[in-house]
Amino acid sequence: MITGADVQDRVRIPRNEKNDYSEEMAGKRREFVRERTGANLSHVAQYSLDPASLPGNIENFIGVAQVPIGVAGPLRINGEQAQGNFYIPLATTEGSLVASYNRGMRLLTESGGVKTTVVEVSMQRAPVFIVDDARQAREFGRWVEEHLPAIREQAEATTQFGKLRNIGQFAVGPLRYLRFNYTTGDAAGQNMAAKATYAACEWIKKNYPGRLKYFLSGNIDTDKKHSHLNTLLTRGKRVVAEAVIRREAMLRLMQLDPKELFYARQVQMVGGFLAGSANNGAHAANGLAALFIATGQDVACIAESHAAITYSQYLDDGDFYWSITLPSLIVGTCGGGTGLATQKQCLEMLGCYGEGKVQRLAEICAAVVLAGETSLAAAMLNGDWVSAHERLGRNRPSIEGGLS
Amino acid sequence: MITGADVQDRVRIPRNEKNDYSEEMAGKRREFVRERTGANLSHVAQYSLDPASLPGNIENFIGVAQVPIGVAGPLRINGEQAQGNFYIPLATTEGSLVASYNRGMRLLTESGGVKTTVVEVSMQRAPVFIVDDARQAREFGRWVEEHLPAIREQAEATTQFGKLRNIGQFAVGPLRYLRFNYTTGDAAGQNMAAKATYAACEWIKKNYPGRLKYFLSGNIDTDKKHSHLNTLLTRGKRVVAEAVIRREAMLRLMQLDPKELFYARQVQMVGGFLAGSANNGAHAANGLAALFIATGQDVACIAESHAAITYSQYLDDGDFYWSITLPSLIVGTCGGGTGLATQKQCLEMLGCYGEGKVQRLAEICAAVVLAGETSLAAAMLNGDWVSAHERLGRNRPSIEGGLS
Amino acid sequence: MITGADVQDRVRIPRNEKNDYSEEMAGKRREFVRERTGANLSHVAQYSLDPASLPGNIENFIGVAQVPIGVAGPLRINGEQAQGNFYIPLATTEGSLVASYNRGMRLLTESGGVKTTVVEVSMQRAPVFIVDDARQAREFGRWVEEHLPAIREQAEATTQFGKLRNIGQFAVGPLRYLRFNYTTGDAAGQNMAAKATYAACEWIKKNYPGRLKYFLSGNIDTDKKHSHLNTLLTRGKRVVAEAVIRREAMLRLMQLDPKELFYARQVQMVGGFLAGSANNGAHAANGLAALFIATGQDVACIAESHAAITYSQYLDDGDFYWSITLPSLIVGTCGGGTGLATQKQCLEMLGCYGEGKVQRLAEICAAVVLAGETSLAAAMLNGDWVSAHERLGRNRPSIEGGLS
Amino acid sequence: MITGADVQDRVRIPRNEKNDYSEEMAGKRREFVRERTGANLSHVAQYSLDPASLPGNIENFIGVAQVPIGVAGPLRINGEQAQGNFYIPLATTEGSLVASYNRGMRLLTESGGVKTTVVEVSMQRAPVFIVDDARQAREFGRWVEEHLPAIREQAEATTQFGKLRNIGQFAVGPLRYLRFNYTTGDAAGQNMAAKATYAACEWIKKNYPGRLKYFLSGNIDTDKKHSHLNTLLTRGKRVVAEAVIRREAMLRLMQLDPKELFYARQVQMVGGFLAGSANNGAHAANGLAALFIATGQDVACIAESHAAITYSQYLDDGDFYWSITLPSLIVGTCGGGTGLATQKQCLEMLGCYGEGKVQRLAEICAAVVLAGETSLAAAMLNGDWVSAHERLGRNRPSIEGGLS
Prior knowledge:
The structure is a homotetramer. By secondary structure, chain A is α+β, with helices and mostly antiparallel strands. Chain A contains 14 helices and ten strands. The first copy, chain A, has helices spanning 4-11, 23-37, 97-110, 134-146, 148-156, 190-207, 228-233, 247-254, 258-275, 284-295, 302-305, 341-349, 358-386, 397-400, and strands spanning 61-78, 83-91, 114-125, 128-130, 163-172, 175-183, 213-215, 236-245, 309-314, 320-329. In chain A, strands 1, 2, 3, 4, 5, 6, 7, 8, 9 and 10 form a ten-stranded mixed sheet that branches. In chain A, helix 3 packs antiparallel against helix 8 (247-254) and helix 10 runs antiparallel to helix 13 (358-386). Chains A and B meet through helix 2, strand 1, strand 2, helix 3 and helix 6 of A and helix 2, strand 1, strand 2, helix 3 and helix 6 of B.
């Protein structure tokens, strides 16, 4: 006879409350899965990382996903922290991704490299405070401004590295959304920001001379989500990659005339605007996702990190100025998955493991993204270019302005 | 003396044009990287997959990222294709993610499970055609409508599985953006859609009795990017997960009253709207990224896939109806990384490897997302709840409506 | 003693249920207002329209707002319906508006005029149907598709001019938003669409073999509101104005080089994208509001109508191709305020009074908007231009690309 | 023989450079229009305003648009500046608008009135500065911060009433968008902000120790355009109207149960989010446009002013808390059209003419908007209600949650 408890036992995943991070427990869970699903997890069971290194990274560990890494480069970066030629580890299962980025890196490198700049740093937790009406909410907002030093003290007492820059305020009816903006050292910093903000909120609740309640997130953070707010006001790193791409190099390596590219950019910018896109460029997510997996970043943050704003100009000498701004790039060089076996090694490839390296990593991310933009743009236009001989007459201005 | 050629040799990553997918070449590249960057790639070199299986997945292969997998479940799903209890492989380096989703799965399972439905299927490539003026563009649009059967024939001739559903049209000045909507069988289908659309575009260019040029992407696809267009008009799968969560279970497992949750939802929905967020729920990206890495999906598609629309109601009996709609979920059960060693095994855990399984996988993705929503919402509200004893008086209606 | 009834009498605005549209009743109400607010409405009382003409336009009539009208032009339009030189009545209280549009009209006219094209026509009412779950909602959607002929019959039976083009469907959880798209003859057509859709919805509710409820608006119409949906899918008229502006004329009349303008456009497009703007051009609302007031349009529809997409190219001969697309222009030449005294006369100035004129009016609106764009762009750039002598050296490419 | 000059004379609108603001010149222009278009402008010629009062309001004056005004009220407002019962002049040609708002005003008034609060004040001009690269742009941004006192001095020297609150900064590539935020006294203040910002920009250009150029608008202001930026960061007045609507009053006056309304609000909020709407409420533009025309506001600013965020809760006692937040309401009580004949009288109806009244007017606007929201919501739901007897069974929770 099968009792309810038996059923419970049969469906509950095995755990060892004392020491769950062992190959033994991983094996028990794989066996449990095999029994219930029929799946053989022989490959999942192959790894060199030490299960004992995993607390804080995973629960119910059963093994690993083996994600192939390809290397691309060299990519010449002229950053403030990232300077020199870089070889980039890209973990992906999408064919041609590495090759395509590689091609873009060559174009940029042969044009003298990519200039990279982190222009703003800001990680958030954004609670919402609820009072009785809009007037009280405005009053509460003033009180927060006046008590910023005390609030900062509370928040910063919880963390060694986090510093509260300022608190943005957004008013809706009786709600006051507060956006706590931090610098977070080398960590991506979401947890640091949450913990600090929680302490600050509790202090506010105790000390504010009025009734209020709050939620630790009012959903404007927006953590693991793209939002226009993040594009405007920065989340994580706001970082710019820019390059003047030589006409000669673009023609030679990409078979593309910068003038044609600029013509196409007008259409692409309209497309991005029309679609209500998070990114008026091409495909930042591709390079970023591959870099994030390789280097132990929080891959869910692709949601925020893939946003971008491309700004370009066709220069009088025929060269092409190309910039891409990532307004909400979420990266860290400590914490999260950065210390795991393969992830640490990939960070070391970039000289980005350990303290004081996060800006360097952000710069590399932006440079990689720009490489991918150049390559995909050329591929897309060359599809058209290839068949150029089939084109009808092209002497009329409104069609062919960029091509003649 | 170092010549230019020497320099070139020293920076170019080793490749073997004849057979690049071998452990030997991987090793040469690791050595190349070690020499130039100092990074020891000993862990990256540890894998059980066969390098010979990697053409079409990676270039310049050097090894793998080992991403820890945890298992969560069981998750009861009452889908059309996914039916029963599922154990979910989640590949992540973010601590507590698996535990949190696991808790949500329990809540849903004890409430009778998640109902899942794929309501629309549509993969795109969206070229833009450029003619001389808006009037010609309108004329061109009509011509495309009239020639849809021939265009479909051209597109579908390139693919065994892809079917052209229809072509959306968007007019801007002399531009006509065409959005080719396909079903793509079990593949995510981006490449299939691109190839088919290219063939169609070339046919159009040859046969249209007027001057035109086109770009294969007009940037409204929007591939690897969130866009409002995708939220409205679907990209990949539009899939819904919904559940009636029992008040008793929510109180017992989450220490949360559905009434309080509904109160909070009003604030969260305003926050999502205010922020201009891609998702008025909580954190779809977390579960999806972990599932995508484990099962060999294109992880860059988190950019599109994390968009979501939450719709909920507080029911008269005190239960809570909760739905989440993913309008642009990009998944496949063949192609991409789905056939690689660990990825295939994780798909097998879900009964999703091979033909005819993509809808099942889409349903599982949505169910997992809903589990994560419930868990994070409870955690966020319980942060407040924990300190409820410290709260000031709470009898006035506009603050405390959801809590009394 | 003042009783409750007395108080009621004292605050209620006088009405005459039998014949409220008379100067006598208007006078009584003005007196009522004067007694309670002290405001002398002597000017409000000055009008030449006949109060008896006002049923269907206003309730509780007390007089008129006298909004000054200025005339601008001639504006050369090469439309499908609007052809020739036009003199444009602009009702506004904002100084320089008429002068600025007038200047733009001269530039366009001297460049050969504006080409205008209505590329799509579609007025909506968008109800939402609610069923038990997403699966039923999908089923309901199919049923609607299958019964489109019967639904169309019901909708069109309520109107002489309205024709149901198609029904868009948007799925969220158990909700099915239906977007009924109509052509509405010469009327703007909101009421026509509402009435027809109501009939269709009632028929659906009676005939659908399942449980459902509906709201006549699910808030995606989006009536009197800008929305990205409208920009994508058209509301009212989607109309394009385009012109090739001669370099010579722009230099002579605007002291502006098209090359500089194109340089600036790159920055402006980025600004529009960054801001999340409804319009990546300059100020469509200015000209439209003035035209709408003068010609009896529904001025609240500026909310929708001011959305726009600018697309431009710098041509090889130094001329400037400039297009602006208004995706949701709401205008009519019958119904609403079009038949009132001054409004009718202003429509007659444009040859737009009466049947068969709505496309002509839409074309004129777009042409006027383009005129305003050129003028403001030049003014903005000339502010910089004026002080050009103070500028620092300008030989470096990334700053001065467009100016040298 | 007709010469070019003759042609020019025949098409040019008559102007008198010395004194153009006379009935004589208006008459000449009307005659000119009549000759060229055939339109008789007899009604346009009827007005009581003095043409000599019009410099600064119109050019090429030919007469007026007579826009009918209806009066609605009383509307009980419990604002900070607006306190008491108000009678509202609404200038519109759309039938039922006045009646509908009037009904909502009664509901609000009988529920105790509307509480109104201006929570933020901020008018902008947002120039963009362009330097050589992102690093210089970041440096420039710091310089601006450091020189804020000097910049403020320059800006404020140009205006009696404008005060520079702060300067927001937004970084894209080599561009630095600066958003100058002002308070502007009783004026809407666009021109004041432009003039002050121009002075500041010229000073910056002279004093910045590096190369730069700027445009006075970088298109993120966003003047006369809705933008997400404005919704987040306020343009003009951010003003809230809120009310607790009594269940009894809603049932009696609207035949609507607040519980049903709250159920519907969930659907409407999803609709607003799905559509990418500027406003998740109903139709703020209707009341605002009518008020703007009556009181001499800049009607083009409906583009910005119609944005809104509705936040509501269903209270435990069955009442309904309803708030609407207008984040970018653009109004003034001096300047613009506020001093014209009828416009001034309508402002006097509201006690809003002259100095120190702008906050009062903003509060009235918000209160009027809330009245319209209640009325339209009820009308929409009653359309469904009316036919309630035809509804199928309604006992199942997911459909009928709000209705039982």
